[in-house]
Amino acid sequence: MATGSVSATLNTPDLTPVWKVPAAQWVIASLVGIALIIAFLPGLRFMVSNWEQVEEYSYGYFIPLISAFLIWQRSDQLRLLEMRASWSGLLLLGLGLMLGLIGEFSAIRLFGQYGFIVALFGLSVTFIGWRGTRLIAMPLAILFFMIPLPQFLLRELSQQLQLLSSQMGVGLIRLFGISVFLEGNVIDLGSYKLQVVEACSGLRYLFPLMVLGFLAAYFFQGSWWKRALIVLSTIPLTIVINSLRIGLIGVTVEHWGPKMAEGLLHDFEGWFMFMVCIVLLVAEMTLLARIGDKPASLRAVFGLEYPEPVARGTPIHYRRFPTPLLVGGLLLAAVGAAALWAPQREQIKPDRTPFSQFPMRLPGDWIGRPDRLDSDVLATLKVDDYLIANYAREGEPSVNFYSAYYDSQSSGVSSHSPRTCIPGGGWKITQIEETSLTLNSPQGEPATPLTVNRTVIQKGDQRQLVYYWFNQRGRTLTNEIAVKWYILHDSITRKRSDGALVRLVTQVPPDEDIAQADRRLTDFLGTVAPQLHKYIPD
């Protein structure tokens, strides 16, 4: 469209011309946006379901609204730029679509979610060019906060925060002269035990507070190091306040009973502590505003402004038609149509024998006694099938045999690593190494090699020896990162992501050499390993 301006502006030459997007172009941009959502719909749908089911991400609904507000806030600056659509944005769009394709074929939705934002950046470049995109880069970047972390990373982070908050909370309880014992994430007050579960890890504070810290740093008009400090300080601030909350709950439970850790009062304490976090964050910004070469008030450096309206008589130019945006839209429409009408890619779930049929009598005089996991543990693990049993032979400590099987590990659910879970029970890992075993089967079969993680754990005077590995579609893996890689690889190439964790634990009595415990686990493995393929398919 030809560039033009309104004739009424001839008498006001001092006004800076502004650029306007014709209504027809906004219609096209809206249709392209719809095509973008449809093309990435599986990953976006999974992301929204996480917002609904995982309380740590319940703030996710607000992130797109915040991003839209921040872009609108820059609208007066965008009007001053003669932004030209760039064909190079199609490269970013292509990269985003590639990530979405990987997410679709592997059923690992995280790729599609990140691909959506990369594609959004690409569309911005095809619409308003690089100059305009740089102006709204931070408002677009905040969209990354709406994407949930991978489950294995969220789990490990939660576990570490539970342990740290428990330790700091117990320290506060002891300052009040209260006798307390800490065992992992269980605080024993004698008359009552407080368990610092995932909901008390502090992640419900940390994630939304990091968003607020990012926004505060965005509006804060100061040195880069001050902005970085505002964002980074949300992490220790969350840990300290959450530990303070746990400590105060322990103190109040000691004096007024268990009701102080339950129900509405417990929820109110969480809300109140989050408000304390916000107050401290504002206090920090006030302090940062007053230090440095040019001290000022917080109001003076907090640049929350609204876009200036277009003055009457301002010359108006109309932007050229963004052909790259139209091409990108057609590409997205094709991908979206394929996503809607292509047959659903289902993962293969191989036939297997359920663990309920696993024998309790094994060669070598091993006799088992089945056990069960608590319902809250099962809700956390989300296993499709599992076996836990204690096997023993006369005159020796028992061997706890545990295996958790998953039909699919591509949608954020996967085996929990003992490296993460062991500390939660109060045990400390004193030694961990990868070791190769040679197993002799009592059935007369040839000896077979097996590589496992050999771990020695201790709690007080108690010692245990742990062997564990991940049995993944015919592979024996000991590294958690390798497990994630092969889940992605096999989801794409074999349409499978099933697999299991296998773990053996035995007590090491004070008068027993640990080499004897090694022989006990190795003997038991020689009996069990040849049978596992029926329950954990290759």
Describe the protein.
Helix content is 49%, strand content 16%. The chain is α+β, with helices and mostly antiparallel strands and 538 residues long. It has 3 domains: 7-149 and 305-341, no CATH class; 152-301, no CATH class; 355-535, no CATH class. A hairpin with a 2-residue loop joins β2 (181-183) and β3. α6 packs antiparallel against α14 (323-341). The chain is flat. Residues 1-12 have low confidence and may be disordered.
Reconstruct the topology from this structure.
Layout: E1 18-20, H1 23-39, H2 41-53, H3 62-73, H4 75-78, H5 89-106, H6 109-135, H7 137-141, H8 151-175, E2 181-183, E3 186-188, E4 193-195, H9 203-219, H10 224-232, H11 234-256, H12 263-290, H13 298-301, E5 316-318, H14 323-341, E6 361-362, E7 366-370, H15 375-381, E8 385-392, E9 399-406, H16 418-421, E10 428-439, E11 448-459, E12 462-472, E13 475-477, H17 480-493, E14 499-507, H18 514-528, H19 532-535
Parallel strand pairs: 1-5
Antiparallel strand pairs: 2-3, 3-4, 6-7, 7-8, 8-9, 9-14, 10-11, 11-12, 12-13, 12-14
How many distinct folded domains? 3
| Count of discrete alpha- or pi-helical segments spanning 4 or more residues | 19
| Main pleated-sheet profile | 9 strands, antiparallel
Uncertain segments: 1-12
By DSSP, the count of extended strands is 14
**What does the average pLDDT come to?**
86
